């Protein structure tokens, strides 16, 4: 055991959420929601705020992202160091850190398969780039993403999505690929149009 503490909660309530976000332990309890952040090293309280409707928190780099009670309610961001509100936007369905930026999917495209991807500035929520509609085949928090989408003439278009630079580099068109792709260590595994599984080497 590294440390131990009794964490207070709202009267008559137990924490609904206990989540580690970077170097913080964050709890959500009570109604309306109260969010409290503790340092992981000594479980000392760093900040506490009221955030009506917040049901989930996630790591968004220098900010903590809040998910609203209504799944269609977009995302809010608070300063990870102070708990002060930074920005709120109802356009984003999912937001996660990537290469020092935030990668977000739009509400209109939320769901399985390809989604519209945008790059956000973490402190302000400002849109830095629009990457287009892609299905992510490889997730690397520090490196480029590999995205695929159907090609108009058949097969799959494969691209490298540079979140930090806000650019898309087309890599190849896989004529025999149909989808369900996963990429790792320079290789791309996809379901073929005939139902079999194919393996392709990604261009460098």
What does this structure look like?
With 204 residues, the protein is an all-beta fold. The protein has a domain of 88 residues: Thrombin, subunit H (Beta Barrel), CATH 2.40.10.480. Helices cover 0% and strands 57% of the residues. The protein is built from no helices and 18 strands. The strands form four sheets. The chain has a seven-stranded antiparallel beta sheet with strand order 9-10-11-12-13-14-15, with no helix packed on it. The radius of gyration is 20 Å and the shape is elongated. It starts with 16 loop residues before the first strand and ends with a strand. The mean pLDDT is 87.
Topology:
Blueprint: E1 17-21, E2 24-29, E3 34-39, E4 45-50, E5 54-60, E6 63-68, E7 75-79, E8 85-89, E9 92-98, E10 101-106, E11 115-120, E12 127-138, E13 145-150, E14 156-162, E15 167-174, E16 177-184, E17 187-192, E18 197-201
Antiparallel strand pairs: 1-2, 2-3, 3-4, 5-6, 6-7, 7-8, 9-10, 10-11, 11-12, 12-13, 13-14, 14-15, 16-17, 17-18
């Amino acid at each position: 055991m590294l440390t131990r503490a009794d964490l207070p909660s709202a009267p008559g309530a137990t924490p609904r959420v206990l989540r580690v976000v970077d170097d913080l332990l964050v709890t959500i309890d009570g109604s309306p929601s109260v969010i409290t952040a503790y340092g992981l090293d000594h479980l000392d309280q760093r900040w506490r705020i009221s955030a009506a409707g917040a049901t989930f928190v996630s790591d968004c780099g220098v900010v903590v992202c809040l998910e609203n009670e209504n799944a269609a309610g977009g995302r809010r961001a608070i300063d990870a160091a102070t708990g002060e509100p930074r920005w709120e936007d109802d356009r984003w369905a999912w937001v996660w850190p990537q290469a020092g930026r935030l990668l977000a999917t739009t509400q209109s495209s939320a769901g399985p398969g390809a989604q519209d991807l945008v790059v956000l500035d973490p402190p302000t929520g400002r849109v830095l780039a629009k990457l287009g509609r892609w299905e992510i085949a490889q997730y690397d928090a520090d490196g480029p993403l590999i995205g695929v989408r159907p090609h108009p003439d058949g097969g799959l278009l494969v691209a490298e999505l540079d979140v930090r630079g806000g650019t898309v580099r087309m890599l190849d068109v896989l004529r025999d690929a149909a989808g369900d792709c996963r990429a790792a260590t320079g290789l791309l595994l996809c379901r073929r149009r005939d139902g079999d599984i194919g393996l392709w080497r990604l261009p460098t």
